[in-house]
Design brief:
The chain is mainly alpha-helical. Helices cover about 75% and strands about 0% of the residues.
Length: about 170
């Protein structure tokens, strides 16, 4: 009887965690990031312990890792002090980018949540701004086509009126 209730409560909890809410996303990412971070720290602690006591290394770990030829060439000899540290370093190096991805996603989920909070507290515009039609604005300038000679003459005249900074420096 209790087993069915526990299973249904677990199913309901998983349903809530799968929903697309910003706070739920941030909670899930935070829990997974902390879980991975603590697992990596525990692995490094176990490697430090096995460095002092290499005889406690499980034989299954040594056998599995030495079956792969590229791992055998990469890692120190099984049973030595450096073997556990080499295995732990290899696992941490593989999982460390996932920890960074989880941290970045968690921070961006928090930013989304803060932006939604800021948007909800902003006062709404009370009156829309009405723009007047172009006919009520008054007379407008007539557009005329400017040919290349007139434009060049205008630019030369503007350049002659405005003293150049380089010329002023040379005169001093």
């Amino acid at each position: 009887m209790y087993e069915q209730v526990i299973v249904l409560v677990g199913l309901a909890l998983l349903l809530v965690l799968c929903l697309f809410f910003a706070s739920v996303r941030q909670l899930v990412l935070t829990v997974y990031a902390w879980g991975l971070r603590l697992a990596l720290l525990a692995l490094l602690g176990a490697a430090a312990y096995l460095w002092f006591h290499p005889e406690y290394m499980p034989t299954e770990v040594s056998d599995t890792l030495t079956q792969s030829p590229w791992l055998r060439a990469l890692l120190p000899k099984p049973g030595t002090q450096n073997f556990a540290i080499g295995v732990a370093a290899l696992v941490v190096l593989v999982l460390l980018p996932w920890l960074v991805v989880l941290d970045i996603c968690r921070k961006s989920a928090g930013k989304d949540q803060r932006l939604q909070r800021v948007r909800s507290t902003e006062p709404a515009a009370t009156e829309p701004v009405l723009l007047s039609p172009a006919t009520q604005r008054g007379p407008s300038l007539a557009l005329r086509r400017i040919d290349g000679r007139a434009a060049a003459a205008t630019m030369a005249e503007a350049g002659a009126r405005k003293p150049s900074r380089a010329v002023n420096r040379l005169e001093q």
